Amino acid sequence: MINAYRSSIMHFLDDPRDRSENAYEFFEDGLLIIEDGRVKQLGDAETLLKTLPPEVLVTHYPNAIITPGFIDTHIHYPQTEMIAAYGEQLLEWLETYTFPTEKKFEDTHYARAIAERFLNELLRAGTTTALVFGTVHKSSVEAFFEACENRNLRMVCGKVLMDRNAPSELTDTAESGYTDSKSLIEKWHNRGRLGYAVTPRFSPTSTAEQLKKAGDLLQEFPDVYMHTHLSENTQEVEWVKSLFPECSNYLDTYDQAGLLGRRSVFAHCVHLEDEEWQRLSETKSNIAFCATSNLFLGSGLFDLHKAHAQNIQVGIGTDVGAGTSFSILQTLNEAYKVLQLRGDKLSPFESFYLATLGGAKALDMDNDIGNFEAGKEADFIVLDKACTPLMEFRLQQCKSLFETLYVFAMLGDDRAIQATYAAGKLVHKR
Ligand code: GUN
Ligand code: ZN
Q: Which residue, among 125, 132, 157, has the nearest Cα to 325 in the 3D structure?
C-alpha cells in the first residue's frame, strides 16, 4: 500500500555541528512517499508526482512543514497526572507527590487508563517515540506496552527497580526486581516496535546488589536498554556519596554494576565531575537533556557544550511529571534559554536535530527512525505554520528556514502539531 504526502519537508542526515552545509535536506514543495509503513522515497513534488501510479492517494498539507516525529529520551508515564506539582526540589518532590502517585499503579485498570491518556498527550505533542519509566509494578509496564502495541508505536519502557529508601508499597527486592524484569524482557523486548529498558530509578533507591542484578540482565540480554537518573540535584549527589562510600563518584555506582554503554541513557547529568563526563564518553553512554524539568525542580543548567566536546550523544527529554510540558517544542524553547544563561547558543538546526535524528542516535535507533531515509519507519509530523494568529503573523516575517524553525521552537507547542503519523498511519489529527 502506497501513500504520499505533499508539503514542505525537512529532515537531518547528520548533526549540523559536524556538517553545517548539508546536514539536512529541505524541500520547499516536497513529496514523502510511504509504502507499507516505511519511507519509500523523498524528493521534489514536481518530479516525484510524475512517477506515482495514478491510484496513489496524495495528501496535501500546504502552509506546513513535515518533519520526522519527535523523540523524547526521558519521560515517566505514571507521572502524567501530577505534572505541575508545587513548590519542591527533587527529593521532597519525590516524597510529597511522586511516590503517592506511583502507588496507584498497583491497580492495572488505572495503569491502562493513564497509559492511554499519556499516549494521547505524546501524539498531540508530535512525539512518536519515547524512553519511558513505568512504576515498580510489573503490570504497569504490561499496561503501557499493550497500549503502545495497539497503536503500533515505537516505544521503550521498563519496570522501576527500587529496593530501599522508598515506601514499602513501592519496593521490590534485588531478586524480584531481576525476575520481574527478566520476564518482561522475554515477553516484550523486540516484540513489534517495542523495546525494554532495565530501569533502576536512581542509586539512592537501589542497593549495590540490585544494581548488580540489573547489570546481570544487560549481560544476558545485550540489546536491552538501561535507563536511569544521574546527578540531577546537589543534595541527591551528596546522598549518593554517603550511601556508596566505596564508589568514586555517582556514575561509578552504575559503572561498578556494568550499567554503562551505547544503549544506556542517563537523565539530567547536571552536576557531573570531570571523571564522569570522561567515563560516559568512553563507554558511549547517552544523556537525556531535560530542560523544563531541570528548571522546574531548580536542579541546574545542563552543559550541552561540554557533552558535545566529549562527543557524548544527547537527546531531548521532557521528564514529565517534573518536566512541565509534553511538547518537545516547548522543551527546546527552555533548552535554548538554559544555554543562554550559560552564555552559550542553541541553533534551531541543532534543536531540531536533537529532537529527531539526535534522539534516535541516543536511543541507538537511527537505523529505524529519526529521518526519511528510504526504508526507515514512517513516523512523521505536520507542523502547521498557521497554528495560531501570532505564529502565522510571525512566520510571515521569516526569511529563512533557520528563522522559521527557531520560531517554531520558541512559540510552538501541541497547537503546532497538525497531524502525527506512526508507521505511516495517522495517529493524531488536531
Ligand atoms: N530521580 C529519581 N526519581 C526521579 C523522578 O521520578 N523524576 C526526576 N526528575 N528525577 C528522579
Ligand atoms: Zn525522570
A: 125
Pocket test for ligand 1, best of 72, 79, 89, 201 (most atoms within 8 A of CB): 201
For residue range 358-411, list pLDDT tens digits in order: 999 999 999 999 999 999 999 999 999 999 999 999 999 999 999 999 999 999
Integer Cα distance of 260 and 283 in angstroms? 6
From start to end of 201-244, where are the E strands? 225-230
Question: E strands along 13-50, which residues?
Answer: 24-35, 38-44
Nearest-atom number in ligand 1 for the CA of 90 is 10
Q: Is the minimum distance from the CB of 65 to ligand 1 under 6 angstroms?
A: no
Tell me whether strands 380-384 and 417-422 are parallel, antiparallel or unpaired: antiparallel
Q: Compute φ and ψ for 371, nearest 5 degrees.
A: -155, -170
Q: Which of the four CATH numbers 3.40.50.300, 3.20.20.140, 3.30.559.30, 2.60.40.790 does domain 70-326 have?
A: 3.20.20.140
Q: Which CATH architecture has domain 2-68+371-429?
A: Roll (2.30)
Q: Is 101 in the pocket of ligand 1 (CB under 6 A)?
A: no
3-state class (DSSP) for residue 261: coil
Distance (Å) from CA 53 to ligand 2 centroid: 48
